[in-house]
Structures are given as structure tokens and as C-alpha cells.
């Protein structure tokens, strides 16, 4: 009984291609960083130092959509950092407490397309 090797078509002989989009772990990642609900207006009443009340619900929705446009955590973090500014504290007052004094200050901003400017908001409003 003589058995000779037969040439095989390349399409049927290659390994199965991997498809990472269908893996459970990657599906869970995408769902984790996608929006669960529509944004709600935060309950803060700032008018002077922070301009939370001057931002419309449409602006909040656009900011929310801009954040969740990215399905990747690192891109979402970069979006947040783009809308924050970190400054060193100018003055350290001596305290007798056991906690360390703050060394930096974070300011949060949202861009308002209707007003066409960047507005400073509080941390509660930003997150």
C-alpha cells in the first residue's frame, strides 16, 4: 500500500484565525467602558466660582457622548486629563493634624458648544 503526500490547498491548511472581538474577556471590557444610562444633571447650585448652572443639558450630553465615544480605558483617561488642569499649591499653611497637606490642586472644565467657551465646574458636576 503506497501512500504519497498530496499537495493541500493553503486556504484549508492554515491555522484558525484568532478573533479577539468575540472573546469573553474583551466583550466584558467593552461593556465595562460603555455608557449604562443617559447622563443626569447633577444637583449643584454653583453660580460664581464654578459655572455649573450655566451649562445646558445638551452640553452635558455632548460631553458624555465625547467621553463614551472611546471604548478603550486609556483613551477615556486621556479625555478626562484633557479637561482637567493640575496646579501646584501656592501656599502651605502649617497644621497640627496628622494628615499631609495637599501638594496639588485639580480644576475641572467642560467645553460648552452653545456658549463656545470652556467653563470651570465642580468635581461633583464633572463626574
TrEMBL record:
Region (Disordered): 1-23
Protein name: Uncharacterized protein
Annotated organism of origin: Euphydryas editha
Amino acid at each position: 500500500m503506497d501512500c504519497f503526500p498530496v499537495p493541500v490547498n493553503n486556504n484549508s491548511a492554515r491555522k484558525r484565525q484568532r478573533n479577539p472581538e468575540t472573546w469573553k474577556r474583551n466583550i466584558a471590557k467593552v461593556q465595562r467602558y460603555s455608557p449604562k444610562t443617559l447622563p443626569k444633571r447633577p444637583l449643584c447650585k454653583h453660580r460664581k466660582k464654578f459655572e455649573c448652572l450655566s451649562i445646558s443639558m445638551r452640553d452635558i450630553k455632548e460631553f458624555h457622548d465625547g467621553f463614551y465615544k472611546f471604548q478603550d480605558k486609556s483613551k477615556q483617561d486621556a479625555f478626562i486629563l484633557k479637561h482637567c488642569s493640575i496646579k501646584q499649591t501656592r501656599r502651605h499653611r502649617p497644621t497640627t493634624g496628622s494628615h499631609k497637606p495637599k501638594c496639588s490642586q485639580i480644576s475641572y472644565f467642560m467645553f460648552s458648544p452653545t456658549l463656545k467657551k470652556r467653563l470651570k465646574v465642580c468635581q461633583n458636576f464633572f463626574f
